[in-house]
Amino acid sequence: MAKLPSTATIKDIIAALQQMECINQKTDLAATVGSPASASDAVATIITKLQNAKNSLAANLTAKGQSATGTESLQSLANKVNSLPVKKWATVTATVEGGGGNSTVTVSGLTFKPSLIIVKHRNGANNGDFWALYFANFPNAYDTVLTTISAITDGSQDTYNAKNNTANGGYINSSGFKLFIQSSTPGTQATCWIYE
């Protein structure tokens, strides 16, 4: 702050004191905003950088399916971040039960209903990997996926469409599932990748 002349009026002194207070608040504002704002920035620059950050946050929210604009309050934007949908997933190891055409994999303890389940298992110690796929929302899509997986695996591997065979006790719900898979040796371990 420039030195006040000896002829300064009360009004000039009050304005100078207010500017000094603003300088102190500017440092606090820059610290609160954080990067890219800095204490050496002018107040108007800090405000511009804050607005740019709000615009960027709003654009990112909109890209994730949550309508937002940079003119909203910071609290409103923060609340919208908390409202973004989050998809859950899990990877578990399960024991294959049954045998022959009635092999099953059962998983419990989920906190979501699966829409995609991928199961990798073996049929005996010397056989290759088998892949079972379940698509809840795309009942006919598995044909394409199975063809793709078959094309990239070696001859000892196979693919199979896992079935939610409710007539024989199969189920899929928000706490787990029991799927019928390709014939497998009972007691073998299966790795399950499960997606909401």
What features would you highlight for this structure?
alpha+beta, rod-shaped, 24% strand, 33% helix, single chain, 4 helices, 8-stranded mixed beta sheet, 196 residues
Please tell me about this protein's structure:
The radius of gyration is 31 Å and the shape is rod-shaped. It contains 4 helices and 8 strands; from the N terminus they run αααββββαββββ. The chain folds into 2 domains: 10-82, no CATH class; 89-195, no CATH class. The protein has helices at 10-33, 43-63, 74-82, 142-152; strands at residues 89-97, 104-108, 116-122, 129-135, 158-161, 171-173, 176-180, 189-195. The model is unreliable at 140-157 (pLDDT under 50). With 196 residues, the protein is of the alpha+beta class. An 8-stranded mixed sheet has the order 5-4-3-8-1-2-7-6, covered by helices on one side. Strand 4, helix 4 and strand 5 (158-161) form a beta-alpha-beta unit. The protein is 33% helix and 24% strand.
- What is the mean predicted local confidence, pLDDT? 78
Approximately how much helix is present in the residues?
25-40%
Structural class: alpha+beta
Shape: rod-shaped
User: If helices are DSSP runs of H or I spanning 4 or more residues, what is the number of helices?
Assistant: 4
Instruction: For the record, give the distance between the C-alpha atoms at the N and C termini, rounded to a whole number.
Output: 60 Å
Per DSSP E runs of 2 or more residues, the count of β-strands stands at 8
Q: How many discrete domains?
A: 2
Quaternary status: single chain
Provide the gyration radius in Å: 31 Å
Order of helices and strands: HHHEEEEHEEEE
Unreliable sequence segments: 140-157
Largest sheet: 8 strands, mixed
Strand content: 15-25%
Strand arrangement, major sheet: 5-4-3-8-1-2-7-6
